[in-house]
Amino acid sequence: MILAAWEIMGQNDFNKDPGMRRLAERYLAEVTPNGAIPGYGDAVGFNTNPSTYIFFFETWATAFRDGRFKWAAHRMFDFFRRHEQDYAQWGNPICDAMDSLMEAYLAADESVAPVLSGSMLATSSFC
């Protein structure tokens, strides 16, 4: 985890790094309105660990003071809850998610309101 590694090394000013902001924006552009990140290429998307992405987006929302990232974190949490039984095929999703969800809670700043971005991908309603 990039954010955790930077924190361990005492480099908590990641939000000032333009490369980190570009990475965050790239991940944000992949989030669909229903909260999923589609898999493409040889990747499987976020299907085995969505809670890590929730932590990332809450951290970025706070660091960048940008509600689009909070919106993405909320949509991903909603998606995870709706598909909890689907995730059971990979083990115990609730137990596996707890560390990242606790980190997301600690990183969240409720003064940053969720904001839907016009750049979010359209998706069908089957999810």
Task: Describe the structure concisely for a colleague.
The chain has 127 residues and is mostly helical. It is 55% helix and 0% strand.
Q: Mind explaining what this structure looks like?
A:
This protein is mainly α. The protein has one domain (18-34, 46-117). 55% of the residues lie in helices and 0% in strands. It contains 6 helices and no strands. It has helices at 2-8, 18-30, 50-64, 67-82, 84-87, 93-107. Helix 3 packs antiparallel against helix 4 and helix 3 (50-64) packs parallel to helix 6. The longest helix has 16 residues, at 67-82. The protein is globular.
Give me the number of helical elements. Answer: 6
Strand content: under 5%
Number of strands: 0
Uncertain spans, ≥5 residues at pLDDT below 50? 122-127
Q: SSE string, helix = H, strand = E? A: HHHHHH
Number of discrete domains = 1
What is the distance, rounded to the nearest whole angstrom, between the alpha carbons of the first and last residues? 28 Å
Label the structural class: mainly alpha
Shape: globular
For the biggest sheet, the summary is: none
Output the radius of gyration.
14 Å
Helix content: 55-70%
Keywords for this structure?
globular; 55% helix; mainly alpha; 127 residues
Lay out the secondary structure.
Blueprint: H1 2-8, H2 18-30, H3 50-64, H4 67-82, H5 84-87, H6 93-107
Helix pairs in contact: 3-4, 3-6
